[in-house]
Amino acid sequence: MDLHEFQAKGLLRSYGVPVPDGGVASTASDALRVAKELKGDAWVIKAQVHAGGRGKAGGVKVVNTFSDVYDVSSHMLGMKIVTKQTGPDGKIVRRTLIEKATDIKQEIYLSFLVDRDSEQHMIIVSSEGGMDIEEVAENNPSAIVTERINPVTGMGLFLGRKIAKKIGLDSSLLNKFADVAHKLYNVFADHDGMMLEINPLVVTGDGDIVCLDAKMNVDENALYRHPKIEEMKDYGELEPQEVRASIFDLSYVSMDGNIGCMVNGAGLAMATMDIIKSYGGDPANFLDVGGGADVNKVREAFKIILTDPKVKVIFVNIFGGIVRCDLIAQGVLNGSDEVPSDRSIVVRLDGTNVEEGRKILEEGAAKTGLTIVTADTMADAAQKAVELAAGEEKPAKKKTSAKAKE
Question: What InterPro entries has UniProt attached to this entry (predicted)?
Answer without folding.
Answer: ATP-grasp, ATP-grasp_succ-CoA_synth-type, ATP_grasp_subdomain_1, Succ-CoA_synthase_bsu_CS, SUCC_ACL_C, Succ_CoA_ligase-like_bsu, Succinyl-CoA_synth-like
